[in-house]
Amino acid sequence: MRLFIFSFILFLGSVELKAQRVCSSTSQASYAPTAFSITSQNNNVPIEQVITIPVVVHVLYNSATENISEAQIISQIEALNADFAKTNKDFNKVPAVFAKLAASTNIRFELAKTNPMGQSTTGIVRKKTTRLMWSDDNKIKAEASGGSTTWDANSYLNVWVCNTVPGLTGYASFPGSAMATDGIVVRYDAFGTTGKIAFPFNKGRTLTHEVGHWLGLKHLWGDQQCGDDGIEDTPKQRGGNTGDPVFPKISPCSPNPDGEMFMNYMDFTNDASMGMFTEGQKKAMRTQFAVSGSRNSFLKSKGLAAAWNNMAPEVLPVNTRNLVVYPNPVHTSTMRLVVNTPMGVNGKNFAIIASNGQVVKTGHIQEMEQEIDVQHLSAGMYQIRLTDTESNSHTKFIKN
């Protein structure tokens, strides 16, 4: 996670603005990525195979300024791909001693072409909100709290772009996080390389940094003084570097002549001073796509496939089905249930019924859109029904 702390110095009506990166991702402090060596035997993903991740960008805006353009969004995806491919134009700024450790990750990103319902999409969701700004409490990730609900996090990288509280430019979930809140939040003027962007975070590196977290990378210093990130080829570091350091940056933790790797994307320097991932970081990120990895499901994502559901999207407020399940068919361990009837104060009870009439799961929902765990269900046709006395809503779904 990257946070900016702005210091305001007021003197005779003048204002000096200083920007600095700080991370407060204490909730993720226990996350410890492992198995950094990758082979085709233990990973089932050849090290040079290109992995493409479908991305959905949720734009939450209160003013026209925050409603960033498609061009700004595309510029961010292009910058992200360049950073992950080691084709960034400023790579030549990386000192030779560290450049030899730099890697192209063979991981790329593309705006989704198909939504979880199987319908064609631009990969961009726009929503006007009454909220002036958002914090890091994940409320932006749910319709119930005025946000935009997460698309199937087993198949899409969800990115929310919005106006954040002062000091916050972005934060990310780590592998293994709850599906309902899995993804990345980035401030609208730190997203992309053109449009409504603000120096010194105007080269798209906030998202590059946060995707590193989303794929399991820690900060170089492991969030401890003179700590370590567990990656073999990144030197120990005293803490987060800020601004634009000058090479070599020697510290008691890295007393060797090369000093600290402040140009690594997992540091806190300004965008212009960043420029590389290492080979070790590449291996660590790709480990997440192993059979036992938290991002393995992305290898089967249909987010970039041709649309397979040509039905017009439902208009929820009028004459709709009372229940909608997506994705349908369900090909992941969870599904989303959308209830298009009043929930009432106490929510709704539901039952899932197999084709033989057996009730295989019951539960309670409090929100109009909620994730339901169906990993224990065998492949087949099911019915889900609201079971409250006043309810008679039901629909069918297929579990693959």
How would you sum up this structure in a few lines?
This protein has 400 residues and is α+β, with helices and mostly antiparallel strands.
Characterize the structure shown:
- The chain folds into two domains: 24-299, Collagenase (Catalytic Domain) (3-Layer(aba) Sandwich); 323-399, Immunoglobulin-like, CATH 2.60.40.
- The chain is 11% helix and 23% strand.
- The protein is built from five helices and 17 strands.
- It starts with a strand and ends with a strand.
Name the features:
400 residues, alpha+beta, Collagenase (Catalytic Domain), Immunoglobulin-like, eight-stranded mixed β-sheet, four-stranded antiparallel β-sheet
Report the end-to-end length measured between terminal Cα atoms. Answer: 36 Å
Low-confidence stretches: 3-17, 26-42, 312-320
Beta strands, count: 17
* Name of the top-level CATH class of the largest domain: Alpha Beta
Q: What profile does the largest beta sheet have?
A: 8 strands, mixed
